What does this fold into?
Amino acid sequence: MKKMDEKIIGIVGGMGPYTGLDLAAKVLDQTNARGAAEQPSLVVMACPSWINDRTDYLVHRQGENPAVGILDVIERLYGAGARVIGIPCNTAHAEEILAPVADGCAKRFANMTLVDMLQETGAFMKEFHPDISSAGLLCTLGSYKTNAYGAVLQDFGITVINPEGMQQQEVHQLIYDPGFGIKANPNRLVHITRTRIERVAIELKNAGAQSIILGCTEIPLVIKEHYLAGLPVIDPTLSLARGLLRKAAPGKLRPFPHESVETSI
It folds into this structure.
C-alpha cells in the first residue's frame, strides 16, 4: 500500500491515564508491519482537563456534555492530519455523548471517519466468537445506566448481562476509587482489582454469560488474559484498534487470532 493511500489515525486520549496509550499500542500490535517504516501513522492527544467525566454527566448531570471537550480534541487531531478517529472510552459511546460528537464531526470535519468502539466490539464478536449469544459486562455506572452496550449488541444477536446490585457498584468503584481504583493506580494494587473482578466474572458466568466484555478501557490495563472465570475475554480496545486499522490502512491489518491462548485466571 502506498503511503498516500493511508490515512492518519487520531486517538482521543485523556479519559484515563493510560487508555489512549493502550489503544495506540494495540493498533501497533495488530499490524503486519515488518519494520519501523511500515508502521501506521497515528497521533495521540490527551487533554484530560478538557473533557468532563462521562459518568458524572450521565448519572449525576454534573458539568457540560463531554462531547464538547471530545470535539475540541478531535479538532486538533484533524488539524494534525488525522482522518480516522477513535475514542478509547466505552462510556463516551453512550448515545447522549456519542450522537453530538458524530454530528459535530460530520458538520465540521470533511473526509473524516469516526470509528464506533461498541459497533466494532459487536462485529468482532460475531466474526471471531459467532457461537456467543450472551456477554457479561464489566463497566462504569455511566455505561450501565444508559444501557449503551445492550442497545448495540442486541443488533448482533448478543444479550448483555450486567452485575447485580452492589456488584455493579463494586465494579465502578474498582475503576474510580481514588485509593485503589485503576484510574488512580493503573500499575499498583493490581492483585486487589484482579481478585474482585474475577469474583464478579464468576457471578456473571453463573447468571448465564458466555463471555466477559471488559467494558471500561481501564480494565484491560489489569486484565490481560484471554480467559476470565473460564470464559473468553472481549477487549473493546482491541476491537477498536482493529477497526481503526481497517479504515486507515487495511493492508496493514494483521490476521486474527495470531497469539497463543493463555490459561484463565
Summary: Residues 3-116+239-252 form a domain with the Rossmann fold fold (CATH 3.40.50.1860). The chain has a mean pLDDT of 92. The beta strands are 8-13, 42-46, 82-86, 113-115, 134-138, 159-161, 212-214, 227-228, 231-234. The chain is about 40% helix and 15% strand.
